[in-house]
Amino acid sequence: MPLLIVILGILLLFILIARFKLNAFIAFIIVSLAVGIAEGMELETVVQSIQDGIGNTLGFLVMILGLGAMLGKLVADSGAAQQITTRLVAKFGIKNIQWALVLTGFIVGIPMFYSVGFVILIPLIFTIAASTKLPLLYVGLPMIAALSVTHGYLPPHPAPTAIAATFNADIGKTLLYGIIIAIPAIIVAGPLFSRTIKNIEATPLKEFVNPRILEESEMPGITTSIFTALLPIILIMLSTLADLMLPADNPIMPFIGFIGNPAVAMLISVLVAIYTLGLARGKKMPEIMGSVSSGISGITMILLIIAGAGALKEVLIDSGVSQYIAEILKDSALSPLILAWMVATVIRVCVGSATVAGLTTAGIVLPLVAATGTSAELMVLAIGSGSLMLSHVNDSGFWLFKEYFNLSVNDTLRTWTVMETTVGVMGLIGVLILSLFI
User: Fold this and answer.
1) Residue 175 parent element (H or E)
2) Tell me, what's the pLDDT at 90?
3) From CA 378, how far away is CA 390, in angstroms rounded?
4) Cβ(136)–Cβ(126) under 8 Å?
5) Full-model pTM
6) How many CA atoms lie within 13 A of 104 on its CB side?
7) Which of 56, 40, 13 is nearest to 319 (CA)?
8) Which residues contact 77 (CB under 8 A, 6 or more apart)?
């Protein structure tokens, strides 16, 4: 019965979001209440559980995601993203242009939310395709694949960061393992796959045929652009490597641990970006703060969705359902990593949102980590991979890709959906291989 209630709750979530187009945060709260009450929890206890779930989830994430949005906006508005793209394309040349775009998508995708990175980079993709006379999908898909992978696998993006917090996974290790898995996933889903779809014709939106491209004098230098975009990753990875290589009693460890804390790393990165991408280039503080404020406004709903997922997770834990499910699943012949990936895939197909799929799955399979001793970091990546699977017509990313590339629904399924599924399958394969050594 507890398992049936959870299945019906997820079905209700799907109906509310996909059929009735209800806001995902509202849908999560309704489903949390329904599941809690159906599981026999007292009304006051259900409400308290929802409040605790929201508070516990956002308490860790607000600072990281808020500062991450600010950094992404500063990178975009300053022209740093364009500088990275143009310089790498010039360096690699037309023959290796796909690899330049993959690297661009990866670098720019780390500090930026997927939709922001997509909208910022798409005019550059159109311009490069027009100037090189190469097919649009051949040029664009590698960069989009890199953006998608960073969105699904790597902190400080919302879903992987929130899932890591749920499992108490080490952010630095999650990032390190995620990068190792991301590289082959991007190569297969981007440059290799795009070479098989040259017969599918895509055309840019007419509004972007002649996009405004910043002059060299309007953009920061390439070294500054790359350093500022990657600074949070540098700081977090520095702390992780120090943990692995230095003794715990080394006097420098507390300082490295402090600057490598994800929240502190993001704060330092934003302060550096304010100077390197703003003040050092003659911009006034009100203009810089305008970019920062507009960046924050774009993640408000993401934060609420994550909060709603946190509420459902807490209800599942407090009602005992998560433990009940874990008891059923722990004796399964399947690896917990495969089970988590499969649950995320099913929810992704039903609900559409990768973030919703990832966070809902985390709440369901949470007890499996303790019960089976599975690596928390690999569970984060398994769920992240499953949450990218089989994107179709109920996913906003599907329509974003379709409309910007002027594709039919059928051609979008043949390109975008196959690319996302390739990323998800490659992620699972990478996780399973890493699990042999970790």
Assistant:
1) helix 171-187
2) 82
3) 21
4) yes
5) 0.74
6) 35
7) 40
8) 291
